[in-house]
Amino acid sequence: MASIPIIRLAPHAPATRARSASQGRVLPVLAVGFVLVLLWYGLAVLLNGHSAEQQVLAPLNKPWNWSDWLLATWSAPRPVLPAPHQIAITLWQGVFDWPVDSPRSLLLQTWITAQATLLGFVLGGLLGWVLAALMVHARTPERALMPWVVASQTVPVLALAPIVLIILGSLGLSGLLPKAVIAMYLCFFPVTVAMVQGLRAPQRIETELLQTYAASRWQTFWLLRMPSALPYVFPALKVAVAAGLVGAMVAEVSTGAQGGLGARLLTASYYGNILQMWAALVMAALLGLGLTGAVALLERVALRRHASKP
After folding, report:
1. Given phi > 0 = left and psi -120 to 50 = alpha, else beta, which region is 81?
2. pTM for the whole thing?
3. 52-61 pLDDT, tens per residue?
4. Please, which residues have CB within 8 angstroms of residue 269's CB and are 6 or more apart in sequence?
5. What's the helix, strand, coil split of the chain in %, to 5?
6. 242 burial class (0-12, 13-18, 19+ CB within 10 angstroms)?
């Protein structure tokens, strides 16, 4: 009788599948990034043609061809749209060519903006949590507060920033706190809406089960409603921290702050330094990615710990 062949599974099959899945997520992102860089270089050629002729080719006082013109569009000292490699060089210089405590260091300016963003994020998260808890436990606070929560987001942050600065300045408060208040203004709304939805996520049978164990309202809140709100609140926290960064930078620009990425943008615009402006923007984007990545890591840890509980 013929023997039945034994099929052996590869011992590293799960690792292989995980590796292929990660590649499936990364490769499309890299492909889109490559296409965007190519389009960026092409757009730089179209926008920088006139400035390249005046700033790079004309001072040479010698004939030039199309290849010289093409390279000049990517190396103009004051371009309309800098080429990606120009931004990368300026970013490198701002990070590594200056001491960390120098006002010209991008790391120092990033840290100043990050402080205001994180403080505003914490304050906005706490405010959103308190408002959501009030709305969930009673209908009257919800009917009284929710319209004002929604209406608060219709006020342009550019108009609000000088008002906040004047009010807090009259109270003797300046520096970090006014920028954090503006960041908090943009942070609390998504947290409030998500927390309200998450705190109401438990089904009625679950709340009634806790009531049979004579659980108080606060015990129900901490043991049932808060864990149920985690999948809802963490996506909102990612949106909130990104919005807080925008608020901090808008506050720096509109209030004429002495430090921060917003102040770096404002100073570069005064002097027409396009490369410095783009370097500050890229640094702000990297800061935003770092902050949202930190929230995503916190989400993974919190949800994993919650899932491991019996």
Report:
1. beta
2. 0.82
3. 877 777 777 7
4. 277
5. 80, 0, 20
6. buried
